[in-house]
Specification:
With about 230 residues, the protein is α/β, with parallel strands linked by helices. The protein is built from nine helices and nine strands.
Length: about 230
């Protein structure tokens, strides 16, 4: 690969699967036993809030049993040592990138360890459950907190920042993503349109593999450290 200066990295569920977090799709995914419409839409929250809160409370609790893997650690190393511009965009709602040490990071689909207040619209860090209706740390309103998760039908976070970074990058890398969920699935096309080199690192070819200049298959815990080593030694 040529010399690069500005890099955007997109990560998906595949990077965290090796840490023991189930992906949302597939026979063993988090949706097993639940329809997407029952747990990840604004309508679901309005219809059965207790079900939605319990679902994400369980996902949040599961974070305590997993650790960042070699792929997360390699990206944290890239973040620490890369002298150029870097933005790591994750579709994941876990905190494994942060725990690995990554700082140049944005969560486009929200975070399990954050709550959004429906009364004051402030976001607050949380560690426990929302099912019991704790008051908002910002305004004090009881039972107003919902998971700070981008539900289907809602706009992903930080889209202007992400798109601006992609338009300025000369290398776009996608790691562990299905290539099936928009708008993230379209990022490679945006990067290609501005002349950036594009690289896919995935366990298997994704729905969008054909858009990438290079697509490599294998575990993220192997591919990502190897790729980072080619950049920074």
């Amino acid at each position: 690969m040529k010399t690069h200066r500005n890099i955007v990295v997109l990560t998906g569920a595949g990077i965290s699967a090796e840490s023991g977090l189930a992906t949302f799709r597939g026979p063993d995914g988090l949706w097993e036993g639940h329809r997407v419409e029952d747990v990840c839409t604004p309508e679901a929250l309005a219809k059965d809030e207790a079900l939605v809160q319990r679902f994400y409370d369980a996902r949040r609790a599961a974070l305590g049993s997993v650790e960042p893997n070699a792929a997360h650690l390699a990206l944290a190393r890239l973040d620490a040592e890369w002298a150029g511009e870097l933005l790591i965009v994750t579709q994941n709602v876990d905190d494994l990138h942060e725990r690995a040490g990554t700082r140049r990071l944005t969560h486009m689909h929200g975070e399990l360890k954050s709550a959004l207040c429906r009364a004051c619209e402030e976001r607050s860090p949380i560690a426990g459950d929302l099912i019991d209706g704790p008051p908002c740390p910002a305004c004090g309103t009881p039972a107003a907190l919902r998971p700070d998760i981008v539900f289907f039908g809602e706009m992903p976070y930080q889209m202007e920042r992400i798109e601006a970074a992609i338009q300025d990058c000369d290398l776009f890398v996608s790691i562990g993503t299905s290539g099936a969920v928009y708008p993230a699935a379209g990022f490679v096309q945006l990067a290609g349109a501005v002349g950036a080199e594009t690289l896919e690192l995935n366990l298997e070819r994704s729905s969008g593999s054909g858009w990438f200049d290079v697509s490599r298959q294998g575990p993220a815990s192997v591919l990502v450290p190897d790729w980072v080593a080619t950049l920074i030694g």
